[in-house]
Design brief:
Distance between the termini: 43 Å
Helix content: 40-55%
Largest sheet: 6 strands, antiparallel
Strand order of the largest sheet: 3-8-4-5-6-7
Order of helices and strands: HHHHEEHHHHEEHHEEEHE
Radius of gyration: 19 Å
CATH architecture of the largest domain: Roll
CATH superfamily of the largest domain: Ferrous iron transport protein A (FeoA)
CATH class of the largest domain: Mainly Beta
């Protein structure tokens, strides 16, 4: 069994599959807890497989049932530490794969999921140094909870009205799960640091039309809720850039 003190730091104690489950909890930060069925859908596994993994994670004290909600589970303090460690490795790999190797956002995310469970602490430390100690992943999501506490919250793009302007701040973890959405955002230049303005908002079509770095782009209101923006004067140091590497 993985002890609570070891869970956040001993990656060898967590299988690659277990790490994917823990990482999945981060995709739903605004809910009280998640169910095995929800995570099964995220990871495209059977509900039975998810239930079995939840049982093992609970035995290892990485997740705990929510009081008063028998079907809901959340990360423990040890689980949150493990999630931060996993996400940091994932983010570093994404910076490497997009900035150096030249992969697309969607392809880099898929490759990072294959690799983040197996890179060594030595390689992780070297990547962190080489990449300039990023505080976010390439999509703008804080690399850990400490970084998140230091950064502004932003607001969903879907809340903007016609005529409003803003800066793309964060493509949330929930949006990262949609490869097609990532590809569209990247193709239209809708990346952290990009300036956009809302040309129109259609309730009947449930969509926004934006003027962005590469002309017009249309987003449904649902995916637009998964993209956070900042209004007003934006501190450009919020947007990590990897010095000397291709973009």
């Amino acid at each position: 069994m993985v002890s609570a003190t070891r869970a956040g730091s001993n990656r060898a104690a967590l299988s690659a599959a277990a790490q994917e489950y823990i990482l999945s909890f981060r995709s739903h930060p605004d809910v009280e807890g998640v169910t095995p069925s929800l995570v099964a859908k995220d990871l495209e596994v059977s509900k039975q497989a998810a239930a079995e993994m939840f049982k093992r994670l609970a035995e290892d004290k990485l997740i705990v049932g929510c009081i008063g909600h028998a079907r809901l589970w959340k990360l423990t303090a040890a689980g949150e530490a493990a999630a931060d460690a996993i996400f940091k490795r994932h983010a570093l790999l994404e910076w490497l794969l997009t900035g150096v190797v030249g992969l697309s956002w969607a392809a880099a995310d898929a490759e990072a999921r294959r690799l983040h469970a197996v890179i060594s602490p030595v390689l992780e430390e070297r990547l962190d140094e080489m990449l300039g100690h990023p505080q976010t992943c390439p999509h703008g999501n804080p690399i850990d909870r400490a970084a998140e506490a230091r950064r502004p919250k932003g607001r969903p793009l879907a809340e903007l009205e016609a005529g409003e302007a803003a800066t793309i701040y964060r493509v949330t973890e929930a949006a990262e799960a949609d490869g097609a959405l990532l590809s569209y955002l990247e193709a239209r230049g809708l990346m952290p640091g990009a300036s956009v303005s809302v040309l129109s908002r259609s309730s009947s079509l449930d969509s926004l039309t934006l003027d962005g770095p590469i002309g017009r782009a249309t987003l449904g209101l649902r995916p637009a809720t998964l993209i956070h923006v900042l209004q007003g004067r934006v501190d450009q140091t919020l947007f990590h850039r990897v010095a000397g590497l291709a973009t």
